[in-house]
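Form 7-S
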Amino acid sequence: MTQGHREPCAGCGEETAAGSVLFSSRRVVAAGADGSHYVCSLCDELAARQRAGRRLSDDELRALIDNGAMAMTMWSNAPGPTV
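Output:
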């Protein structure tokens, strides 16, 4: 991974560029003229939970990312505090 080249996950913001730990399991979703969106395997799984375990299509995932709902999907799946 070269310094300055970033491909963050659209859900959690973790780096998914070549050379990162998450590169091999990331999902790439074409975003038209904007390039591509990247989603780590954990965020892809969390998004699927919102659909009762059904993996989202590229179009569904792109819509979540483009309208800003991807971050909310990730936060709604975050575990609560433990006591």
